[in-house]
Structure formats: structure tokens, C-alpha cells
């Protein structure tokens, strides 16, 4: 019982401190069936600017009844139709730049037929703060190759803990043969590791007692339309009913896209709209991931 009370207190502290949209009705999220949440996760590189393109676009699904979680990454250079956009097509991350979370939600629904009920936006500074608050000892990741990056990251291939700034550089690294595709894999790996670390923390007395403190420190760095009842329900279930595995996929799927150069958007990934839409819909309603890690 005391764990649930601390989670509730933490969620209240987190949401009171979170930055809300000026118009709470701006994000017109669509509720899913009972016990299922689809949440849009946006990682942005704002660098102090009012407008920013989305660097990371993910849809996370939690099924309370089945106690399962799925995570779909949509590559930022995917060339899609953006509703109400004068040039009609652009990279999907441009939707966030022009219309924030709501236009990105509409763009995802328009192109892939997937509805989301809520969103969470985290910028780079927030990510570093979250990692260092949740895991001051670092988050353990399996680095599979030597990485030397112009952002100052230099790591050898081995399982090792990375702190906030280095973990961000690791997740954003794309100067290898896989380019942005490899980066998507690392982003999913990092998110799974973060979730596991937080779950491990709250299963100790010290971890539970520190939840309100962590919530207070993290709240200024997060933008969301989640309300207290929803966040409490999600937090209580996910933290205290551990999910052994998070299924993942990527859009575009293999062999259903081609690289192209456009005048107004630069280098893009022209996706096959029908096959990619079918794949992500199947993923969120099936038991097997489309793309294996």
C-alpha cells in the first residue's frame, strides 16, 4: 500500500511541475479501448528556440490487461503527407515544427491510421537530467562497436554504464554503416534500459522513498497532457507489474522505402504508404514484432 501512495504523491508532484500547453484542449488525443494506452513520445532538439523539429518520434503502447508493452519508432526523415501543409509532403518531423504535438498526432493518424491519446515531449537537456536523476551511477548499455563521435563521445565495444550526456550522444550517434537506422535501434535500447532501471529502483525501499524527490527534480523538463489519474494508473501498473520484454518495430520497415532528394525537404526516406501502414497496424494488434532487433 505504501508504494502506491508514494507513486501517487510522485505523480502529483511531477504533473504540478510539468509544463502544460497554453490551451489544454489543443492536443485532441483519441482514447483507445479500455486498458490500452497509446502515447506519443517526442524527443526534440529545441536549443532554447520556441520551435523545434522532432529528433525522436515513438509510439508506446501499454496493455494493462495483458501487461505488455510495444514501442514503434518512426524515422524522422520519413516523407509523409502532412495535413493542412501547403507543400503537402515533408519529413514527418516537420509536422512537429509547424504544428507541435497535435499536428504530429494528426500526421501519424493520417498516414498510418494509429491514434494516440497522450503525448510526452522531452528535450535533450531534459534527457540528460532524467538519466542522471534516475541513475546517478549511469545506465548500462551494450556497446557493440567502437564509437568515436565529433560530439566528444569515445567508447569501446563492451557492456558499460553511461551517464546522461554520454548516453544522449550514444543514442544520437549515426556515423556508422547503419546511419539513422542504427540510431533508432540505440534509442529503443536506451528507452528499454531506462524503464528497467526505474523499475528496479522502485522495488527497493530507498527507491520508493526517493520517487517524490525524483519527480520534483524532473518535472520542469517534461511537457505532457497526461493528467494525474492517468499517470497514476500507468505508473502504478508499469512499476509494480514489471514487463519482461518490450516489443519494438521501426517505420519504415525493411525493403519498403527508398532514399530520395527533394527540393524543399532535402534528403528523405520515401516510404511505401500502404505496406508501412499495414505493418504498424498489425504490430499494435498482433503479438509478434515486425522488425526484430
UniProtKB/TrEMBL annotation:
PANTHER family linked to this entry: POLYISOPRENYL-TEICHOIC ACID--PEPTIDOGLYCAN TEICHOIC ACID TRANSFERASE TAGU, REGULATORY PROTEIN MSRR
Signal peptide: 1-21
Protein's UniProt name: Regulatory protein MsrR
Pfam name, any one: LytR_cpsA_psr
Disulfide bond as UniProt keyword: no
Keywords: Cell membrane, Membrane, Signal, Signal-anchor, Transcription, Transcription regulation, Transmembrane, Transmembrane helix
Protein location: Cell membrane
GO cellular component, one term: plasma membrane
Residues annotated as domain Cell envelope-related transcriptional attenuator: 53-198
Source organism of this protein record: Bacillus pseudomycoides
GO biological process, one term: cell wall organization
Role noted for this protein: Involved in SarA attenuation. Affects resistance to oxacillin and teicoplanin, as well as the synthesis of virulence factors.
Family: Belongs to the LytR/CpsA/Psr (LCP) family.
Membrane topology type: Single-pass type II membrane protein
